[in-house]
C-alpha cells in the first residue's frame, strides 16, 4: 500500500469516526492483466522471456536461467548460443551484458514448420532493441534468436 493510499484511507476512517459522514475510496486505476495460452507459440516465447529475465534479474547463479534454456531451447541452439556468448561476451538470449527494464513479444508470422516472434527489449526511456525469435512448431522449442527476421517462407 502506498503512502498516498494510506493517507486517503486514514482520512476517510477519521471522517467516519468523527461522524462527518465523509467517505474515501482508494483507487489504483485500471487493473493490469497479462494473458497467454500454453498451446500458443507466441505465448510460449513470451513465457520464456519473462521467466528468463526474472531469473537473470534475481541473479540465481545461473541455475534457473540454465534450466529455462534447457527446457525452451533446442539442444543444438544451446550449443550455438554458448559459442556466441563466448565470442561476444554477452548473454545470448538478451544479446546484451545487462538486463532490460521491460520486454514485449509480438507475433511475426508462422509457417507449417515454425513461428517467429519479435521480442522488443526496453533498456531505458529512449533505448530498445528488437530480436527475432524462431520456434519449431513440432518440438515447441526455440532454435534461433537473431537481429534480423528470416521472413515467412
Overall pLDDT metric: 84
Radius of gyration: 22 Å
Largest sheet: 4 strands, antiparallel
Distance between the first and last residues' Cα = 51 Å
Uncertain residue segments: 1-24
Which H/E pattern describes the elements?
HHHHEEEE
Strand order of the largest sheet: 1-2-3-4
Helix content: 25-40%
Please count the beta strands (DSSP E, at least 2 residues each).
4
Given the C-alpha coordinates, what overall shape results? globular
Determine the strand fraction and express it as a percent band: 15-25%
What class do helices, strands and sheet pairing give? alpha+beta
- Give the helix tally: 4
Account of the protein in words:
By secondary structure, the protein is an alpha+beta fold. 37% of the residues lie in helices and 23% in strands. The chain has four helices and four strands. The protein has a four-stranded antiparallel β-sheet with strand order 1-2-3-4, covered by helices on one side. A hairpin with a 3-residue loop joins β1 (102-110) and β2. α2 packs antiparallel against α3. It is globular, with a radius of gyration of 22 Å. The model is unreliable at 1-24 (pLDDT under 50).
Amino acid at each position: 500500500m502506498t503512502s498516498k493510499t494510506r493517507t486517503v484511507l486514514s482520512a476517510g476512517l477519521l471522517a467516519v469516526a468523527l461522524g462527518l459522514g465523509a467517505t474515501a475510496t482508494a483507487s489504483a486505476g485500471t487493473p493490469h492483466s497479462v494473458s497467454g495460452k500454453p498451446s500458443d507459440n507466441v505465448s510460449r516465447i513470451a513465457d520464456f522471456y519473462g521467466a528468463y529475465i526474472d531469473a537473470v534479474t534475481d541473479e540465481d547463479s545461473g541455475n534457473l536461467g540454465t534450466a529455462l534454456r534447457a527446457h525452451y531451447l533446442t539442444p543444438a541452439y544451446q550449443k550455438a548460443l554458448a559459442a556466441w556468448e563466448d565470442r561476444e561476451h554477452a548473454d545470448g538470449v538478451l544479446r546484451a551484458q545487462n538486463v532490460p527494464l521491460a520486454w514485449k513479444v509480438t507475433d511475426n508470422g508462422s509457417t507449417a514448420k515454425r513461428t517467429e516472434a519479435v521480442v522488443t527489449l526496453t533498456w531505458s526511456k529512449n533505448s530498445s532493441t528488437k530480436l527475432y525469435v524462431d520456434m519449431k512448431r513440432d518440438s515447441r522449442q526455440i532454435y534461433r534468436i537473431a537481429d534480423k527476421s528470416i521472413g515467412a517462407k
